[in-house]
Fold:
Amino acid sequence: MRSSQALAGVNASFFTFTASAQYPGDPVGLGLYDGRLLSEPTGDPAEADFVVDAHDNRALMGRLSWSGSLHNRRTGATLPLKYVNHPPVVPVGCADLTDPTQCAVPGDVVRFTPEFADTTPSGAGVEVVLDRNGCVVRTQTERGTHLTTGQTSVQATGADAAALLHTADGGCLRTDSVLTDEEGRQVPVRPGLFGVNGRYRLTAHGRIVVPAGTGSFFDRNPRTIAGTTREGKVVLATIDGRMTTSVGTTMDETAAVADALGLTDAVNLDGGGSTTMSVEGTLVNHPSGSTERSVGDALVFVPGPYRPTEG
Structure:
């Protein structure tokens, strides 16, 4: 927060914390950073996304959908993408094949960017590295490589390995990536657009809409809220919990807090030990853990006109 000279910021997306020891900050759902889609929406009905245009601070909330595909400009071959920056799964029985293209079980097709990690995930399958124009730089019959500036790659496992090699054969690939809102309208992805994932909408069009539920997620916990007022002002709020001075809120109570704050539209962001708020570089809430938790991403408000990020 201090390095960006931010006025305020809170933790944001749900992310792989204990589920992935190798990639612990990988967002579980939408991750859109200055117009770069680095993580696709999950399609989980619980996901509720929060998207902000830095040019005018207008916000969009709801469950976004994504579709992606590769298209060979010379041959016309097309292959659907399944994920963005998400380690693919190798089908059972295909990991030890000498030729990964001989697997007959459907696998995953995943696009990777340099933002994911120093190297792409390694293992059985194939990988095609592309330059900034989408033209094939090299093809590998096993996964795992380093991407330089401007490069991306596509990995495929299972039966999709052969399909990827066929699609990429001897040409340059166009990558199509489309985000749509709940009404089916395309969301223009451009510099200045930022989006994070939450779990469950709290309010919509002035009404409390959080669903009923049971279990630890719906019990009292620390919470982080992002929403907008009727006038369009963006509001970020945190609720401490799991301590004697503050027990946190249930999902119903969190929605009630959002409503009381005048948030006509609001989503529940990652909470629990992740819940953290900083104002002018100073921690202003009390995180429930013994130390501040490293999180996958954050929502940060920087005063002044929007300036594109470098790279």
